[in-house]
Amino acid sequence: MSLVKVSVENVASNDKILHEIDTGKTLEENIDDIRRIFQLPASMYGLKLVSTNDGKTLHTYISADNFGEIKDGYFLKLVYSLGLLSNRIFDHIDDDFKEKSFQDLYELSVDPEFIKEIVKTEKHHVVMDVFTNRDLSEKEATACLIAIVHLFQKLYITDINQKFLDKIIAITKTAKNHELTKFALSVIHKILCHRDPTFAKWKEETIHQITISDFMVFIKNKGAAELQYGAILVINALIRCCKGEKRHQFIKEIDKRSFRETVYENIIARGNVDKNMAHELYLYQTHLLRSRVQQIKIRRDFALLSQTGRTYLGNPN
Question: Where is the ELMO armadillo-like helical domain (predicted)?
Answer without folding.
Answer: 114-268
